[in-house]
């Protein structure tokens, strides 16, 4: 029996190194570095919003050159493609306070051209990177304009050609998505309504021609419906 136990111990001693050699070394893998998800900003969708700003008449206008406050609303639709370009259409409407200061001529005749409502329907095209959109716009413009002539406050008879209430507008702006479905914008817009010529009236205005235009600067906020705003994250 003792001989059997010694033989078994010898066999175990010889087999242990061979078994150890057959065991594969344990491998370790490094945990992958965490990469935060990338937010995809999608400008496609309908939106509505509001704006405030200032309006300034052109140098050759019958309106007072004083800056005037304006406020209003806008709404539209944008479509993003290719993949960083955005095209869209927008309707905009603004209210302005009544302004009867007008322009005073050498013989004391005062001409007032009061625009208290102004609007536009424009197309726009822009380039976006992330939450920022730089765009240009242009299209149809409309205004509510009242032309008057007086001397020392007494109304005077006159006739004109022009005094158009329909015209065109061009502009440019920058818009930024600051939260899901919300964007803020700053915008310059120029409105041109042609020209007006006095064909009769007091001597100092007869034959005088003025350009009917306005410059506006606005800031505003838009709410974007549906699939506009930051979309699903990309990994």
Number of strands: 13
The largest pleated sheet is described as: 8 strands, antiparallel, barrel
Distance between the terminal alpha carbons, to the nearest Å? Answer: 70 Å
What count of helical segments does DSSP give?
A: 1
Strand order of the largest sheet: 2-3-4-6-7-10-11-12
The percentage helix is under 10%
Oligomer: single chain
Poorly predicted segments: 228-235
What would you report as the Rg, rounded to the nearest angstrom? 36 Å
What keyword list fits this structure?
elongated, 235 residues, 8-stranded antiparallel β-barrel, disordered C terminus, 1 helix, two-stranded antiparallel ribbon
Task: Give the SSE map.
Elements: H1 2-22, E1 38-42, E2 45-57, E3 68-81, E4 85-95, E5 103-104, E6 109-129, E7 132-151, E8 154-155, E9 159-161, E10 166-179, E11 182-200, E12 209-224, E13 229-234
Antiparallel strand pairs: 1-13, 2-3, 2-12, 3-4, 4-6, 5-6, 6-7, 7-8, 7-10, 9-11, 10-11, 11-12
Describe this structure in words.
This protein has 235 residues and is mainly β. It is built from one helix and 13 strands. The protein has an eight-stranded antiparallel β-barrel with strand order 2-3-4-6-7-10-11-12. The chain has a two-stranded antiparallel ribbon with strand order 1-13. The model is unreliable at 228-235 (pLDDT under 50).
């Amino acid at each position: 029996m003792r001989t059997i136990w010694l033989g078994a111990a010898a066999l175990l001693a010889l087999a242990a190194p061979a078994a150890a050699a057959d065991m594969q070394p344990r491998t370790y893998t490094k945990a992958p570095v965490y990469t935060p998800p990338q937010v995809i900003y999608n400008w496609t969708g309908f939106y509505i919003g509001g704006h405030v700003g200032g309006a300034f008449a052109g140098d050759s206008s019958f309106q007072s050159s004083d800056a005037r406050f304006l406020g209003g609303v806008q709404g539209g639709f944008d479509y993003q493609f290719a993949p960083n370009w955005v095209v869209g259409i927008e309707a905009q409407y603004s209210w302005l306070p009544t302004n009867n200061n007008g322009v005073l001529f050498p013989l004391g005749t005062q001409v007032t051209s009061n625009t208290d409502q102004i609007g536009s329907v424009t197309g726009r095209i822009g380039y976006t990177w992330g939450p920022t959109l730089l765009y240009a716009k242009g299209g149809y413009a409309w205004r509510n304009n009242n032309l008057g002539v007086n001397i020392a406050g007494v109304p005077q008879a006159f006739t004109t050609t022009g005094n158009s209430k329909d015209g065109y507008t061009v502009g440019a702006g920058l818009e930024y998505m600051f939260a899901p479905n919300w964007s803020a914008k700053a915008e310059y817009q120029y409105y041109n309504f042609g020209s007006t010529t006095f064909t009769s009236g007091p001597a100092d205005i007869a034959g005088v021609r003025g350009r009917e235009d306005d410059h506006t600067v606005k800031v505003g906020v838009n709410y974007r419906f549906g699939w506009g705003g930051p979309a699903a994250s990309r990994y």
